[in-house]
C-alpha cells in the first residue's frame, strides 16, 4: 500500500465512522458518513502534536493535503506549525484593528460623558484633523513614539493647544485598545512628548473686546441676519457659544431661557440646568430670530443644522478684529467688576461658573435669577447706548 495519498476523494466521501490514514500523518476522522474532520499528526522537538486542518467535507481531500504539506514544511524548518498558525492569526487580527477604527470605538464609548453626546465633534476633531490622516490606517499595535512625533511635529510648536488635545486623545485611544485586549505601547504618547520637547508656543486667553468698545460693535450688528442676531444675543446674555447656537424655542418660557445641563460646561449633573433671565432687549432679538427659525432652532445654518462658532468668528475676522465671540464673556465679567458692585458669587453665576465648594452649594439653593436679571437689564442698556451708570445691587 502507498505510504502517502492512500485515500481518494470518492472513497473519503463513502467511508463510515472511524479513523482513516491518508499517509505521512494525515488522518480523516469521521463521526458519521456525511461529516468528519482532518487531523495531522506531527512530531515537533520530540513531542507529538495533533493539528486540526478543518472540517470534512467543507475542506476537501486536495485542500487538506496542501495544508498538511505546508505544516510539514514548518516542522522541517524547526517550527511548531500549531504555534505558527496561532501567531499568524494574531497578526491577522492585529491588522484588522486599525487606529481609525479604535478611535471611532473610543469616541462612541465616551459620548455619554461629553456635552450633547459629542455631537459638536470637539472631542474627535483633533484626532480627525491631525492624527488619523497619517496614522488612521496603521494597526494600533504598530504605533510607536516615532510615528506620533512625526505626525504632530508640524503643529507641536505653532498650534500647541491643538497638539496637546490631539496627543491626549490618542493616549485615550491606546488605553481603549489595551482594554480591548490588544497589545499596544501605552507609553508611546509620553515617549513622543519627550522626543517633541516642550512646546515653545504658549496658549493664551481668548482675545476679548474691551467692555468700553462693546456698544459700538453691538450697534454695528444691525442687518437682522442670523449671524448678527446670534452675536447680539451672545453679548446680551454672556452665555457660551454652544448653548446659544443650539437655542431651541422649547427652551424659552416667558422671560427665562433654560439651558439643558448637558450643554453647560462643567455641569454634568442632570439636575443642573441653567436659567438665563431674558431682558426686553434679549426678547426683541429672539423675536427677530424666530423669522429665521428652522425645526425650532433660532440660529440655523444656511444648509443644515445650526450656525458654527466659526461663522461668528469669521465676521469679526473680516472686520480685522482681534477679539473673538467667546471673549464677550470676559467683556461682561470685566464690566461687572469695574462698573457695578455685583457680589462675586452673583457675577460668577452670570457666566454659568460653579461657585464655592460642594457643601456650600448644597446649602445655597438660589441661582440669583432676579439679581442677574437686574444686572443684565443694565448691561443691555449699556451696550445699546442708553446708560453707563454704576449699578448698585439692592439686598
From TrEMBL:
PROSITE patterns referenced in this protein's UniProt entry, alphabetically: TYR_RECOMBINASE
Highest taxon, organism lineage: Bacteria
Entry-linked InterPro entries: DNA_brk_join_enz, Integrase-like_cat_sf, Integrase_catalytic, Integrase_DNA-bd_sf, Integrase_DNA_bind_dom, Integrase_recombinase_N, Phage_int_M, Phage_Integrase
Task: State the Gene Ontology terms under molecular function.
Answer: DNA binding
Q: Keywords of this protein's UniProt record, alphabetized?
A: DNA integration, DNA recombination, DNA-binding
**Example GO biological process term?**
DNA recombination
Is DNA-binding one of the keywords?
yes
Xref: CDD domains:
INT_P4_C
Q: One Pfam family from the UniProt entry?
A: Arm-DNA-bind_3
Q: What range(s) does the Tyr recombinase domain occupy?
A: 204-376
Its family remark reads: Belongs to the 'phage' integrase family.
Q: What is this protein called?
A: Site-specific integrase
What is the originating organism of this protein?
Paracoccus siganidrum
Amino acid at each position: 500500500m502507498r505510504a502517502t495519498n492512500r485515500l481518494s476523494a470518492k472513497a473519503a466521501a463513502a467511508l463510515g465512522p472511524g479513523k482513516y490514514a491518508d499517509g505521512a500523518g494525515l488522518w480523516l476522522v469521521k463521526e458519521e458518513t456525511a461529516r468528519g474532520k482532518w487531523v495531522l499528526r506531527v512530531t515537533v522537538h520530540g513531542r507529538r502534536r495533533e493539528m486540526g486542518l478543518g472540517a470534512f467535507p467543507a475542506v476537501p481531500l486536495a485542500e487538506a493535503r496542501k495544508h498538511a504539506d505546508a505544516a510539514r514544511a514548518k516542522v522541517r524548518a524547526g517550527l511548531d506549525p500549531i504555534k505558527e498558525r496561532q501567531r499568524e492569526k494574531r497578526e491577522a487580527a492585529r491588522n484588522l484593528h486599525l487606529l481609525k477604527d479604535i478611535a471611532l470605538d473610543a469616541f462612541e464609548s465616551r459620548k455619554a460623558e461629553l456635552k450633547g453626546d459629542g455631537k459638536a465633534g470637539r472631542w474627535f476633531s483633533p484626532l480627525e484633523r491631525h492624527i488619523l490622516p497619517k496614522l488612521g490606517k496603521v494597526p494600533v499595535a504598530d504605533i510607536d513614539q516615532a510615528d506620533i512625533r512625526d505626525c504632530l511635529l508640524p503643529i507641536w510648536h505653532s498650534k500647541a493647544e491643538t497638539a496637546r488635545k490631539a496627543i491626549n486623545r490618542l493616549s485615550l485611544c491606546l488605553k481603549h485598545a489595551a482594554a480591548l485586549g490588544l497589545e499596544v505601547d501605552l507609553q508611546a504618547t509620553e515617549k513622543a512628548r519627550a522626543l517633541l520637547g516642550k512646546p515653545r508656543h504658549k496658549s493664551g486667553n481668548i482675545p476679548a473686546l474691551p467692555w468700553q468698545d462693546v456698544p459700538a460693535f453691538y450697534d454695528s450688528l444691525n442687518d437682522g441676519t442670523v449671524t448678527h442676531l446670534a452675536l447680539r444675543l451672545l453679548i446680551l446674555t454672556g452665555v457660551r457659544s454652544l448653548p446659544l447656537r443650539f437655542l431651541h424655542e422649547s427652551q424659552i418660557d416667558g422671560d427665562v431661557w433654560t439651558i439643558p445641563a448637558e450643554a453647560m460646561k462643567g455641569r454634568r449633573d442632570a439636575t443642573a440646568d441653567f436659567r438665563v433671565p431674558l431682558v426686553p432687549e434679549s426678547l426683541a432679538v429672539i423675536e427677530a430670530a424666530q423669522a429665521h427659525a428652522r425645526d425650532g432652532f433660532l440660529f440655523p445654518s444656511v444648509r443644515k443644522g445650526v450656525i458654527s462658532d466659526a461663522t461668528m468668528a469669521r465676521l469679526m475676522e473680516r472686520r480685522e478684529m482681534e477679539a473673538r465671540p467667546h471673549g464677550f464673556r470676559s467683556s461682561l465679567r470685566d464690566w461687572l467688576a469695574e462698573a457695578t458692585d455685583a457680589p462675586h458669587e452673583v457675577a460668577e453665576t452670570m457666566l454659568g461658573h460653579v461657585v464655592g465648594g460642594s457643601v456650600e452649594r448644597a446649602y445655597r439653593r438660589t441661582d440669583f435669577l432676579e439679581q442677574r436679571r437686574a444686572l443684565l437689564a443694565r448691561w443691555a442698556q449699556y451696550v445699546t447706548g442708553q446708560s453707563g451708570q454704576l449699578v448698585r445691587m439692592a439686598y
